[in-house]
Write a structure and sequence with these properties.
The chain is of the alpha+beta class. The chain has one domain. It is built from 4 helices and 2 strands; from the N terminus they run ββαααα. The chain has a two-stranded antiparallel ribbon with strand order 1-2. A hairpin with a 2-residue loop joins β1 and β2. α2 packs across α4. The longest helix is centred in the middle third of the chain and has 16 residues.
Length: 92
Amino acid sequence: MQRFDLNSTIDRNGVQIRTVFLREPKAKDRKALARAFAGIQPADDAAQGRDMAVTMVARLCDLPPAAVRSMAIGDFRRITEAAIAALNAGRP
């Protein structure tokens, strides 16, 4: 589990969050994300790529998508990069 101290707080159901935890992805996470975005390539459309990243970060940080969307871009970028690296860790 990776800890991220946010530069700006986010709201989770009325509670201000300053720290989030990125949990280790499970096989079911990869499968669920693949199903959710079947046929969509992030490079096809910037908005689709952002939606994919929000969904992935929300799932792996156990946050609602609205909380992820409210993150400062720097925080979002750091966590997204770590999530992608974690999901790809099992690939050769």
